[in-house]
Design a protein that fits this description.
Elements (H helix, E strand, L loop, with lengths): L1 E4 L9 H16 L3 E6 L9 H13 L9 E2 L4 H13 L3 E4 L3 H8 L9 E2 L2 E2 L8 H5 L10 E4 L1 H10 L6 E5 L9 E5 L1 H7 L4 E3 L7 H11 L4 E5 L5 H12 L5 E5 L19 H6 L4 H8 L2
Parallel strand pairs: 1-2, 2-3, 11-12
Antiparallel strand pairs: 4-7, 5-6, 7-10, 8-9
Helix pairs in contact: 1-11, 6-7, 8-9
Bound molecules: glutamic acid.
Length: 293
């Protein structure tokens, strides 16, 4: 078993992160496996070296150990680009020029009905899909173009590659509505409920979904342990794995740690930062008790 913790260095780690990291660590250790750390710093406009340093310090203080050197996503850009090139060549991507406002305007046209939301936000109405033909033959420029995945063709193709039996993944934790065991979904669910997601964001050269799927596979992750807020995004990850010929790991989505008011903790919730508890004299055992481990 190989598990991982994959934080973004955009703020202090809080109790929710500690829970996720310790759970992934404990699962690996109890199974004679390995726990890996990956720094998800593709959003260079928000990532900061001091937050990265703080992640190492906090996890070390919590008693976790991970092999070095640590994988930084910002150092994997050429791998992401290679995959985008291949998907582009196969006509699975198209450049999109729509702003958020354009998308909302298109969706509020009366014939379109109410805007639909998927795991990646507003479901894109496909306005720019025709650009695929116009740009075919050129090379994609993920740094100055936003590239979307043509979900209609991708989902049907990926489904066909599995004798048309749809998609599934194994959930050993649970989704927000108690979903557990083998989770099934179809190409139609992806087309109507997810849509043409952004696979490379302008100025970033990649996206969370693309990077996470490529890196989980590159690092040989067998069990992805993460918060329930990412349960729905797993459908996107599974279809990308199928499309790219990558294995689908087992998923273990866990409860979210909430404050007294029942709100999930956010990065800016400094009051619950690990470093703050540490400065207040709490021990790693206290942290474990607080999150229920
Ligand atoms: N980097 C993501 C985050 O900090 C986690 C990604 C994942 O576990 O799949 O929320």
């Amino acid at each position: 078993m190989i598990t991982r913790f994959a934080p973004s260095p955009t703020g202090p780690l809080h109790l929710g992160h500690a829970y996720s990291a310790m759970l992934a660590y404990d699962m690996a250790m109890q199974n004679g496996g390995e726990f890996l750390l990956r720094i998800e710093d593709i959003d260079q406009s928000r990532a900061r070296p001091h937050w990265e340093a703080q992640i190492y310090e906090d996890l070390d203080w919590l008693g976790l150990w991970w092999p070095r050197p640590v994988v930084l996503q910002s150092e994997q850009m050429s791998r992401y680009q290679d995959t985008l090139d291949a998907l582009w060549r196969d006509e699975r991507l198209y450049p999109c020029h729509c702003s958020r406002r354009d998308i909302q305007a298109a969706m509020s046209a009366p014939q379109e009905g109410a805007p639909a939301f998927g795991p990646d936000g507003l479901i894109y109405p496909g306005t720019c899909a025709d650009l695929l033909k116009a740009h075919y033959g050129e090379k994609p420029r993920p740094n100055d173009q936003t590239l979307r995945l043509l979900m209609t063709s991708v989902a049907r193709l990926a489904e066909k590659s599995n004798q048309g039996t749809g998609f599934s993944f194994m959930e050993t934790g649970s989704g927000p509505n108690g979903e557990t065991g083998e989770i099934f979904f179809t190409a139609e669910d992806l087309i109507s409920g997810v849509g043409d997601i952004v696979l490379a964001r302008k100025g970033m050269g990649t996206s969370y979904h693309l990077s996470v799927v490529l890196d989980d596979a590159a690092q040989g992750i067998t069990h992805v342990v993460r918060g329930q807020d990412l349960f729905q995004a797993t459908k996107i990850h599974v279809v990308l794995q199928r499309l790219l010929g990558l294995p689908t790991p087992t998923y273990h989505h866990h409860k979210l740690i909430r404050d007294e008011a029942g709100k999930r903790l956010a990065k800016r919730d400094d009051a619950r930062a690990i470093a703050k508890y540490r400065a207040d004299g709490k021990s790693p055992e206290d942290i474990r008790r607080m999150v229920g481990l």
